[in-house]
Write a structure and sequence with these properties.
single chain, about 300 residues, GTP Cyclohydrolase I, Chain A, domain 1, Helicase, Ruva Protein, domain 3, elongated
């Protein structure tokens, strides 16, 4: 039996990031052959990754990447918020966002693209990270935005350690205009900050799902009829309430969060006059970590019992 020393274990740990006990077991199993031990750990890690894939990953980070008239957002999930503070994880999310911009937000292409020349594909890097960090990790979604002429700007809220590219909420905004790009970018960032706060459902009323608008109109109709007023008055009440609904849900109708008094559409109009060129919001995206994922709350004591086989 090979003599497994502390430095051998440390060396293997440095190369793989695996736990000390796992590294020792790998060296014992392979008779001290470091390369074979690395393979042994990778195989063990792959096995662990498969088991962890069934666990809910609803934490993580939103990553943004912007360059000139293009930008991208990605959501990379993990099981705990602790992983979101891991430097390796943050570097991975940053690179994935850059790749998302390169491939136009195509998630399938993103998974098949190497992190860098000579490095594993994104999907393989995820598997390796699962084995290394010990949590289920997934690149959940990605989008890209391109505007010509104009700019794409981004904003992240609840930033990770002051980062401008990583956070819990990420927003992309595309402004179509021939105006000065530096001033356009400043405006775009303010609008992105508003979107992060106000979470609009669409750019205009016409972009809202028809079934959502109809459902809201029916609710307001029933509420208005409870007043007992004539039908023609009820219809006017409905229209007034629907305007209020649009002010709450539609970006251009919302009150700008920066000054808390001007509709966003008026902010755009004012900026266009000041910059001497028409400005149009060509599109926007807003990602928040874990939105739409059903989080499973578990009891720590129960988890310990399950791990112990009880």
């Amino acid at each position: 039996m090979a003599n497994i020393t502390g430095p051998m274990v440390k060396d293997l740990r440095d190369k793989t990031g695996a736990g000390m006990m796992d590294c020792k077991a790998a060296l014992v199993e392979t008779g001290g052959d470091v390369e074979a031990a690395i393979d042994w750990l990778r195989k063990k890690g792959l096995s662990k990754a498969a088991k962890k894939a069934s666990r809910v990953a609803a934490e993580g980070l939103i990553g943004v990447s912007v360059g000139g008239d293009t930008g991208a957002l990605v959501e990379v999930n993990a099981e705990t918020d602790f992983v979101g503070r891991n430097e390796t994880f943050k570097e991975f999310v940053t690179r994935v966002a850059e790749i998302a911009r390169e491939v136009g937000g195509d998630v399938e292409k993103l998974h098949e693209t190497p992190l860098k020349t000579g490095e594993p594909k994104v999907k393989d890097a995820v598997t390796e990270m699962v084995a290394k960090i010990g949590e289920n990790i997934s690149v959940r979604r990605a989008v890209a935005l391109s505007v010509t002429p104009g700019v794409v700007t981004a904003y992240v809220h609840n930033a990770a350690d002051g980062s401008k590219e990583l956070g819990k909420i990420g927003v992309l905004v595309g402004l179509r205009s021939t105006a000065d790009k530096t001033k356009l970018a400043a405006l775009g960032r303010q609008i992105a900050m508003h979107i992060a706060f106000a979470a609009p459902l669409s750019l205009t009323p016409d972009h809202l799902p028809a079934e959502l608008v109809e459902r809201e109109r029916n609710v307001q109709r029933d509420l208005a009829r409870q007043s007992g007023k004539p039908e023609n008055v009820v219809e006017k009440m409905i229209e007034g309430r629907m305007r209020k609904f649009y002010e709450e849900t539609v970006l251009l109708s919302q009150i700008f969060a920066i000054d808390n008094e001007t509709p966003v559409a008026k902010v755009i109009e004012k900026a266009a006059k000041e910059l001497g060129a028409p400005i149009e919001i060509a599109g926007y995206y807003r990602f928040a970590v874990g939105e739409g994922i059903e989080k499973v709350e578990s009891d720590f004591a129960d988890e310990v019992k399950q791990m112990a086989g009880h």
